[in-house]
Amino acid sequence: MYGFTIVENLQKIDQDIKRQELKYHQKRVMVSKEFSFDAAHHLHCYEGKCKNLHGHTYKVIFGISGFVDDIGLVIDFGEIKKIWKEQIEIHLDHRYLNDTLPNMNTTAENMVVWIYEKMEESLESDQKDCRVEFVKLYETPTSFAEARREWMTHE
Known about the structure:
By secondary structure, the protein is of the alpha+beta class. The chain is 25% helix and 30% strand. The protein has helices at 77-88, 97-100, 108-126, 149-152, and strands spanning 28-41, 54-67, 95-96, 131-140, 143-148. The longest helix has 19 residues, at 108-126. It comes from Halobacillus litoralis. This is 6-carboxy-5,6,7,8-tetrahydropterin synthase.
């Protein structure tokens, strides 16, 4: 049986915990956020079922790293969601990808690099010290493409 504790005295800032205690370390940490979208596409120069128009429910996972701020956050998950919604998802969700993405064969391999670049551009203009470490793009529950920072840059 589990025991539950009722919190009677909720911690108060600057009384029970000091502001300088909110930041526990100065190390780089990675946070991840996952999204999904539905879209249609077809592949060019491909002899198989995917040469025909078809759709997927895609899943995207971002790994974003940075150093924690004064309250212990690398980046607010809400900020990642805002970037996704305003800068990336608008080109993808319920869209015909061959029309909405730059000229490319809309393979998972091409798309994951485009998504990586869009997130990286947004972070560079909006966030201090945050960077994309990886993006995974699942085309099906068992098939995905991945872009990693070490493959995208020469750092």
